[in-house]
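Please produce the structure of this protein holding 2-acetamido-2-deoxy-beta-D-glucopyranose.
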Amino acid sequence: MAASFTRALFTLAFAVTASATVSYSGETLVVNGISYYASPNTVSIISATADMLSSASTTGVDLIPLTVLEDTTSSFTTSVFRSVVGNYTAADDVFNTGFLQAIYLKHTGSSPATVAYPLGAALTQYETKLFMPSRAYTSSVEAQGHNFTGWRTEIPAGPYFLSASTGEVYQAYRLYSDVQGAFTEGLIPNTDGSFSVLSAAVQGAQSPTIGVPSKLYYTKTAAKPLAGVRLGVKDIYDIAGVKTSCGNRAFYELYPVKNITAVAVQKLIDAGAVVIGKMKTSQFANGETATADWVDYHSPFNIRGDGYQDPSSSSSGPGAGIGAYEWLDIGLGSDTGGSIRGPSEVNGCFGNRPSHGLVSLDGVMPLSPNLDTAGFLTRDPFLWHEAAKVLYGDNIASNFTSFPTKILTSGFPTSASNEANAILLDFLSKLQTFLNATTTAINVATLWSTSGPAAAGGASINDYLGIVYPVLISQQQYELVTLPFYVDYAAAHAGKRPFVDPAPLIRWAYGQNNVSADATAQALQNKTVFMDWWAESVIPSNAQSCSESILLYPGSTANPTAPVPPTGFGISRVSNFAEVPDMVFPVGQAAYNSTITLQEEYLPVTVDILAAKGCDGMIFALAEALTNAGILKIPGVGSLIDKLNFYCTLLVFK
Ligand SMILES: *[C@@H]1O[C@H](CO)[C@@H](O)[C@H](O)[C@H]1NC(C)=O
Ligand SMILES: *[C@@H]1O[C@H](CO)[C@@H](O)[C@H](O)[C@H]1NC(C)=O
Ligand SMILES: *[C@@H]1O[C@H](CO)[C@@H](O)[C@H](O)[C@H]1NC(C)=O
Ligand SMILES: *[C@@H]1O[C@H](CO)[C@@H](O)[C@H](O)[C@H]1NC(C)=O
Ligand SMILES: *[C@@H]1O[C@H](CO)[C@@H](O)[C@H](O)[C@H]1NC(C)=O
Ligand SMILES: *[C@@H]1O[C@H](CO)[C@@H](O)[C@H](O)[C@H]1NC(C)=O
Ligand SMILES: *[C@@H]1O[C@H](CO)[C@@H](O)[C@H](O)[C@H]1NC(C)=O
Ligand SMILES: *[C@@H]1O[C@H](CO)[C@@H](O)[C@H](O)[C@H]1NC(C)=O
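Below is the modeled complex.
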């Protein structure tokens, strides 16, 4: 008995050993107190002698922090060295002087160059040398560079890790804790174009860890206008090599890793953007309110104000991340009924719902294909426009010759009765001057009742459009996502149904139980009638300015938010049904009394801007022009979007 048991164990152990596969997934290191991740992919190999490399490894750790330093001056002196190091430190959050443990100097300046202390050597033009200045600091004799046969592969300047045992060189990623809970997981690129989940973790809020590569590796070019731009992607877009959750744990568990990256994400990657992680979405991109509805995953934290206001949904992760993290440049979200605009408004950043149909949504979970759009959330209006050109290509007008000179407003305050209203009116006044425009207040419901389309048969706008949105999202998503998910899940789990959060369940039930099976066809018909009326009678296109007018409405007014159901008609529904762009501009911040801190805190004030279909490019250009004119400001990260103005307010009023 005992003997056969032993033999069985031996056989098992042998089988396991014989079939083992082991792969390297990178490693984490701490350099001068900062956590880094060395990518598992070799970017180059230094053919230096083994004893030279091992002598450089003074820390007992195989990986030596290395800086590839590029010098274009005629004489590489100490002051040039310090200037380059200063520039790297200022330009890049990944580089720190600990990476000067080893220096690979690429001297492309004129010949010969004197390399003074701390390196102390002579270089001819285009000569490259590897220095170990940690030795140079103690002895000027040892400061000589070492000859080596050079890179197998040329790599850009920046911080790297060099293996003392093999000479292999790896990219360095700085690690940040996702303290706001904005991400679902950190990603790193594989060499075949797919991605892997980042295998690193650091201390901080018990949240995922995100790795960002050095900015010094990237140079923007015409072909790579987004080179090095750090991109977070809402977790309804597929990315090859990793799973898509759509905000649902059962969905994440059920389906295998994706093998194709969504078209929209791939366009951004091809233009040089660096995907650093997947970001949270409310479940199946339906509207959810923090924290009651977020059962499967906790809602991200909106850092503005007291830090406990709703981040809005469904592109909550990108909104919360852009509001909080200097190390995240742009988020890719989606907007079906306000899912980019809502998070942009309350997290205080730029955000666009584009004209409908500008980019393929292949590889993206649908809510309603007739309403779904892909757009951005960012603090930087210039990057916003650049990224839009990549994502939408020629589908956004860029041939307009002037900005519109007609401003329409809806729901705008008429007096500066509070801080937010004062900010909105101040922005409107500056915009009017900037555009040399006339401003007319409109009420869409009134316009509709006095000069609405005959096809609507006199129905009020609320009766005509009030259920278009909930009908479309519930019936279309049920067909396209829910049914196949239920069938696949049941097949894999003995007929069981998966858990789904309350909000999507209530919406799907509405489409199944409360309206007729052909309600979608009716809803699309009503939507088309509205769209045609809007384009003809409210905001027509224009040959010079693309759009005859722009329409402004208040986005957020520094009021702590309350949940609302998705029925009814409001100004924020116009873009959904008329397929026109609706873009959020942050214009300031206003105080409210926090029930949490028991102090006055500040929340963003934002404006939404609409134009005719396809005129997205004109609004992007307007955001740039207003920023250049000082009328718009780039919002900061953190509790206050405008720290300077906050201190001015204190000086004036306190
Ligand atoms: C460092 O940056 C400054 C400002 O951009 C530039 O003038 C200087 O030439 C840079 N130093 C080197 C060594 O490239
Ligand atoms: C580097 O190589 C050159 C030419 O082969 C040689 O003259 C020089 O002495 C070498 N320097 C060192 C530090 O080995
Ligand atoms: C990608 O995945 C799909 C669905 O699992 C599968 O049908 C297809 O064959 C895969 N394609 C490749 C190239 O592996
Ligand atoms: C503003 O518009 C008015 C009337 O359309 C015109 O006379 C004036 O020249 C314009 N001013 C500027 C600065 O464009
Ligand atoms: C949908 O129908 C159910 C059952 O008839 C009802 O209880 C519920 O209030 C309805 N919901 C809506 C949004 O109309
Ligand atoms: C479409 O409009 C008609 C006419 O007002 C209205 O009765 C109906 O409820 C609307 N249907 C949908 C699905 O929006
Ligand atoms: C811009 O292009 C569109 C579509 O080609 C055209 O209809 C419009 O007239 C053009 N506008 C200008 C100012 O050239
Ligand atoms: C906050 O409360 C204080 C005390 O009631 C009040 O004076 C102040 O105006 C309030 N601030 C805001 C922004 O409502």
